[in-house]
Design a protein that fits this description.
By secondary structure, the chain is mostly helical. Helices cover 56% and strands 0% of the residues. Helix 3 crosses helix 5. The radius of gyration is 30 Å and the shape is elongated.
């Protein structure tokens, strides 16, 4: 589960180092931490004093979640083709808008996966990104296998190929010619 808690991470680091100092189970030997763990300073300090008056009266109402600190920036929409543009710019590749469709397929597959949706809803972006990085290869493989199924079906099933061809021919024709709907 992609959950990062600083306190747990610190406890894990401390216990991992402590475990190396402890004897192995069953050895029966005593252990000493010597000067590895020693209390050197202790200070008790009063930082404030006061009273809280809980008198009867009317409370000020909260005005929505922004009053408790849950406000966030509005999402800015970015065209999906910017991924291909960014990759081309950074890596000197020549990907086209047609290549963007593969990334769109991966995105759509991810958006329809219940585990990924739950992870996105339960985590901030950096934690979700770490989780997403671990499953990204699986998403790419799923899309490749999905495309392979379509490819095999087009080559082996004449009716499927004809239906796909008719639809794609009409759509490509209309987009190239800039028409709304071509007459049949």
């Amino acid at each position: 589960m992609p959950y990062f808690d600083d306190g747990l991470e610190q406890l894990y680091a401390f216990l991992r180092n402590l475990a190396s100092k402890l004897p192995r189970p069953g050895e029966g030997s005593k252990f000493t931490l010597d000067d590895d763990v020693a209390l050197k300073f202790f200070r008790l300090q009063q930082v404030g004093e006061g009273t809280i008056d809980l008198s009867d009266g009317e409370a000020d109402p909260l005005k929505w979640p922004t009053d408790v600190g849950t406000a966030r920036e509005k999402d800015t929409e970015v065209a999906l083709s910017t991924l291909v543009d960014n990759l081309n710019e950074k890596f000197g590749t020549d990907f086209t808008e047609a290549d963007q469709l593969f990334f769109d397929q991966v995105r759509a597959t991810a958006e329809n996966d219940e585990k990924i949706v739950e992870a996105a809803q339960a985590n901030n972006l950096s934690n979700f990104s770490a989780f997403f990085g671990r499953i990204l290869d699986d998403l790419f493989i799923q899309r490749m296998e999905g495309n392979d199924e379509i490819f095999n079906r087009v080559l082996s099933d004449k009716q499927f190929r004809t239906a796909a061809q008719d639809h794609l021919a009409r759509e490509v024709y209309e987009r190239i010619r800039g028409e709304g709907r071509a007459e049949s």
